[in-house]
Structure formats: C-alpha cells, structure tokens
Amino acid sequence: MVKAFSYIEMVLVLMAVMLLILLAPANRFDFSIYEQDEINAELIALLNYYQTKAIATKSVIYVSFPPGSDTIFIKSSQLSLDYHYKIKNGMIDKRNNTTNTQFYFDGHGINKGGTVHYRINQTHYKIIFQLQWGRIRIEKL
Prior knowledge:
Layout: H1 7-23, H2 31-57, E1 61-64, E2 71-76, E3 81-86, E4 90-92, E5 102-106, E6 109-110, E7 114-120, E8 123-129, E9 136-140
Antiparallel strand pairs: 1-2, 1-5, 2-3, 4-7, 5-6, 7-8, 8-9
C-alpha cells in the first residue's frame, strides 16, 4: 500500500504556504538606494574616462555642471566631442557657484580643485575634484 498525502493534508499545506506568502513582505529592499549607487558609479566612471582620455591624447576636455540643470556637458573641439550626460532623477544644485561648476581635463589632469553639489531623488551628494592627477570622488551629504 502506497502512503501519500490525503486531500485534507494537501489543502492544509497549501493554506500554510499561502499564509507565509501573504505575511512575508513582498519587497524588503529599497531599490532606489541601489539605483542611486549605480548612477553615482556611472558618473564617476564617465568622469574618469574623460580625464584619462584627455591625459592620453594630451587634449583639453571641458566638463560643465550648469546649476539647476539635470545634464552634464562634456565638450572638446580638439577631439570633436559634444556629449551630454543626463543625471537620472537628479538635479545639479542651484546653489553651486558657476565658477566652481566648470572644469577641464588636459594632459596634466584637472585644471582646478572644487566641489559640485547635486541630488538624486531627495538625497544630496557632492562630487569632489582634486587638483592635478587627483581623484574624483562622490560623497553623500
């Protein structure tokens, strides 16, 4: 004789499983945090790429962060670059000084140090440019 679940036992097991599914939260993770990290990583990679390209080609590449905009402009007449990078769900802070939002990379690194404030959703960040061969990094405020 083969022993198996009876119909009543099967219904009880299915009810228990359904109860666990309904009681367990559907989404424990806040994916917006991961999305912000992904946007910041992409932004750093983009800036590092153009800094490296400027050093390797000994060309000048301008990077502009217009206050109140959601777009970063990257231009170089020597390399025929005219690139726009839109910060997804982001905005460059209007309180940034316009002289601190324009940088250029050349064969020697960055022309000046500075900080650009921006936000993604409601989270504030700042991009810090260090002089010469210095790093570019992002800090959360």
